[in-house]
Batch of 3 targets.
Target 1
Amino acid sequence: MDKLRIVGGHRLSGRVEVSGAKNASLPAMAASLLTDQTLKLDNVPAVWDTSTMRRLLGELGAQLPRAPRDDPHRLEITVPSVRSFEAPYELVKTMRASVLVLGPLLARHGRARVSLPGGCAIGARPIDLHLSALEKLGATVRIEHGFVDVQSDGLRGTEIYFDNVTVTGTENVLMAACLAKGETVLENCAHEPEVVDLAHLLGRMGAHIQGAGTGTIRVSGVERLEGATHTVIPDRIEAGTFLVAGAIAGDEIDIIRCDPSHLSALLEKLSEIGVETRVADKSVRVKGGVRLRATNVRTLPYPGFPTDMQAQLMTLLTQAEGTSLVAETIFENRFMHVAELNRMGAHVRLDGRTAVVTGPTPLSGARVMATDLRASACLVLAGLAADGQTLIDRVYHLDRGYERLEVKLASLGAEIERLASG
């Protein structure tokens, strides 16, 4: 397995460009199953998760020519017919977002058989909300031998209330409802920008959707959807990770090609901590080297503070003066990075689903292990701030959602390199 080697203490400066959003690209790619025409997606990040979704769509019968050399983030997908209705365990186990093919396969082809995702390092993420909603649309659901088998002779619009806010559940059912007969009203929907981006794409394909980005989404079903061209939104979590990098180790960094409106909760917390930022139309400038203050943060569904930024912000709080409380309300096991941070000199104590961070504490380089995607980014940030060398194992977690992070950081002045396995 590849490793990252980081020598801390180098000040960062310059400009860095944000890639397209992984969590918007995956449902957009799954939407290709809703039509027999070509879907053209721009700004798709070259990360492992999009590669896995490509493989899955190929298994199902999609035609995916190679991206042009002059635009590696351009993706064309055509699904003239489905060769298989099954998303196999070998792919689903590596990426839980594979379940997003469930709704579109069912809506267009009347059947989907998807391996149950199973366990997840950061906590349980069941798909029961997806399945109960599809049943209300008229599907028959059977679970056997580790697979969920969903069938329908035609979906029909209805009213659906999600008991809990679910991003992938909202996306899955939204795609299914586009080809259902009549109107579907979805209540207690996720507000995330990625849901809005999917709705924009579906609208370009001919869907009739109102209310995306609010708690209530109305969908008037159509008989068929067409091909479309769509540019994926910037990755707000990657942008947020660079904001924290600038705060913890930067002189002055410009984060370009991002959407600052998606970063409001993080920008507010950074301001509370004492970090200086300047927002422009599609960029944010962050200035490091300032005195940091402790604060409290609680992860919440969008527009609240994102759980995907909790680990990165915790690294910054180890350098803030005072005691900070970090409450995790989304996933029950998303503090696995704490032990690794403490090995580097942090003072973080766990009290149930709250982390108590006492700072500032000097960090020292150490050999650490990444446990999940965002924990990987947290350790990279800690390595930038630490004295000496940090060696991060299992960085394949990082590659799931960050495109060439070490190259981008090196361009800002970080001493960071990938050590290939072998």
Target 2
Amino acid sequence: MKYLALEKELDKGNRQRIESLLESEARRVYELYLQGIIRECYFSKEGHNAIIIMECKNKKEAFNTLKTLPLVEENIIEFQLFTLLPYSGLDRFFNKH
């Protein structure tokens, strides 16, 4: 199943502390990318928040995977998760009576 994860910043806190986690965050994202879990990863222009497209068996697995990111573990960010379904709107062209 495909999921869209949108980052929400929880704690701007100590910038030095956050910056100390960024390399390990990038490393973990890369590991998940190599495993085929994270398929795409972006930053929004507005707010510089992470937007992740991921592939997991179910929503629980997706949430648990996101919890392994260092910035999530440290309660600096969290993610809102959306299940993505195939677009069925094109059926309107083919199912005319």
Target 3
Amino acid sequence: MPTPNQIIKNPSDFARVFLRILDKEKKLVPFRWNKAQAHFHANRTGRDIILKARQLGFSTYVQGEMFRRTVTGTQTTITLAHDAETTQKLRRMADRFYEHCKFGDIQPLRKYANATLATYPEFDSTSTIATAGNVETGRGDTYTEMHGSEVAFWKDAERIVAGAMQGGNPVVTLESTPNGAQGFFYEKAMESLSGGGVWKLHFYPWWWDEAYRSAGEPITPTEEEADLMQKHGLDESQIRWRRGKIAELGRLFPQEYPEDVVSCFLTSGNSYFGDLSQVFTAPLGAEWIEGHQYTAGLDFGQMKDFTAMPVWDKTTKQQVDLLHINGMEWSEIRNRIKQMYDKWHLRSVLAERNSIGQPNIEELHKMGVMATPFDTNNESKSAIMSNMNEAIHAGGWKMLPLPVQKHEMNTFVATQLPSGVWRLAADGDGHDDTVIGNALAIWEASRGAQIFI
């Protein structure tokens, strides 16, 4: 039998022996980690993003671990939830942990316990639970650990997280279901997925919960269902449950119960291009093939914006390359464009003439680059975007699976202005350089640019 000290030091044993939770039937039971909770505990890094299905228990796990460390050592923790209702639930969870946490007949000493703050004077620990509704929330203290709940639904999440982290080097766990292909949570998830940044992405689709099953008559899986069963080892009871949830939730199913990292963000948001999960399938490492026809688009940007030059193989309808650069002198940018032009034996490139475009087009002509100018306005932009939307969804055109393109395509939205005019652009302050470049390249290849020259 383990001693009390051994139990205290072992996180899963501490949860099982000292903590109580309400299960899905609202029964008070010992907190035994489920498969997803144990997996995350074994793989967390201290800078963690959890993209998850509903009710897998990650808020409970993180709160349990924060409570354990708070009542057994000196900690200053902060928990921020996306709304007042969730904040209250997390506070009730923390109170339940405390009420049932007894070492024999001894309960940890708690001095203050109000709607936001609890203090544990034996170890000089404090625990704050609040709503992430104010960018100033969390500022002014030095935290050892932070838990962000449903971060994809926060307003100004970047500033809130930065404010809570500025006073020290806390352990940070940010968890959420998806909420559209935009915002801080999405950007950090995609950054991690591409191998960059300091955050580690942990993805837990709905089948991590063994309870998501339904009994019934034998079924004949669709092609999509059969693919899921083969890839993830699912059985008919899980597929029956899935069918029932899709019937219940409709288009919200991929948001509430995600199945892959990219499409869950796509289908939960308002991307102009919709579901692109089957579009980013062009192979990497393509080489020039004699006899094939190649086309390119060119969107200029120097400092904050990027110069984007996607190249497409018109013969196979596949993107083969992308030049995506900024922070350079214009002469160097033009040299890079010339190198790409020569590499793919291009005969011309369709280039946006607006703003700085025209003088660069003139200089490129001197270098032997046949850049055809294109004027971008509401009418022409609508035309090339509609054309690209049709090409990738109905025409079989495939894009390279590059993170920057995925991000920009996913966050390109249509917004109706008060004047009634529709604005097609990146959501918020995002970039759409690769979107413009690809639209120009496909326009030149599939229809020709003469209408808007």
